[in-house]
Amino acid sequence: MNRRGFLRGISVVAGALLFGRTQTAIAASPKKIVKVSKFPIGSNTQFVAANGAPAFLFRTKSGVFAYSAICTHLGCTVAPLGKKLVCPCHGGSFDPFKSGKVVAGPPKRPLDKIKVSIQKDWIVQA
Ligand code: FES
What we know:
GO molecular function: 2 iron, 2 sulfur cluster binding; metal ion binding
Bound molecules: FE2/S2 (inorganic) cluster
CATH topology: Rieske Iron-sulfur Protein
Structural class: alpha+beta
Helix content: 10-25%
InterPro entries: Rieske_2Fe-2S, Rieske_2Fe-2S_sf, Rieske_Fe-S_prot, Rieske_Fe-S_prot_C, TAT_signal_bac_arc
Number of strands: 11
Keywords: 2Fe-2S, Disulfide bond, Iron, Iron-sulfur, Metal-binding
Order of helices and strands: HEEEEEEEEEEE
Distance between the termini: 51 Å
Cofactor: [2Fe-2S] cluster
């Protein structure tokens, strides 16, 4: 190996060491939604998801779950009505206790799920 090849090898190794550290992924911290102590089983609430869109959070005996409040038909915002989430635009209705499935109206697919979990004292969006 000549001197030029040796120096190139050194610079490649040095670059990998220097830039390899700076490219480490930084994990985003989960978005806190509500304290577990303030949200007993049977509760539901509206919140703003990490992407800024309106969403609904539910807590049942089996855990916590959430859905986007954006109707999957044409994008209006659904609202609670009894035990359903209902769209005011064309009457789409979704059952949040059955995976957000469509129970009435023109939407073809369920509400989008939002991943949430309980971490220590908080319900968080993952
Ligand atoms: S936008 Fe919701 S039913 Fe049409």
